[in-house]
Amino acid sequence: MKRVLITGVAGLLGSRLADWIIETYPHIEVIGIDNLSGGYKENINPKVKFWQMDLITDPLENIFEAYGIDYVFHFAAYAAEGLSPFVRTFNYDSNLKATARIVNLCINYHVKRLVFTSSLAVYGKGDGEIFHEELIPNPIDPYGVAKYACEMDIQIAGEQHGLDWCIIRPHNVYG
Length: 175
Hints:
alpha/beta, 16% strand
C-alpha cells in the first residue's frame, strides 16, 4: 500500500487534496499533520490518519518510521506576506525551518517525491507583468524570501541527495 503524507492537512489545500486522493485512489493511505493554527479539524476527512503536531518542535520521525511514507505534499505554512516584516522569526521558523525538517526527513526516509507549495511572493512585485515560471525570483518581504529559500534548499537536496521534488506556486486560491 502506498502512503502519502500531507502537511497542513486541516487547511484548504491540504484537506481538499486529502479528499481527492481518498475519493480517487482508495488504495492509498493518507496521513495528515497539522498544528491547527490556521486550519480546522472539521476539514479533515475521517479516513485521514491525523496527527496534531508542530513541524518545528514535535518528533516527526515517529510518523515516517511508523508509516513508511512514499510521497510528501508539504502544504503547511504561515502565509503572512504583508505581516512577515513584523514577525520575521516566526515567519522563518514556520516556513523555512519547518520545510528544512521535512526535507531532511524525506532524504533520511527515502521518500519517493516531495511536492512543496511555494508562493508567487517569490517574484516580488512582478513589474506589472503577468506572472510566469520564467520570471526571475525577486522577493520583497521576509515571506517571499522564506519561500524562495525553501525552493532553493529543495533543489539543492535534489542535486546532493537525489530527492525527487516538485514545486508549485498556487495563486488566488479560494474555497
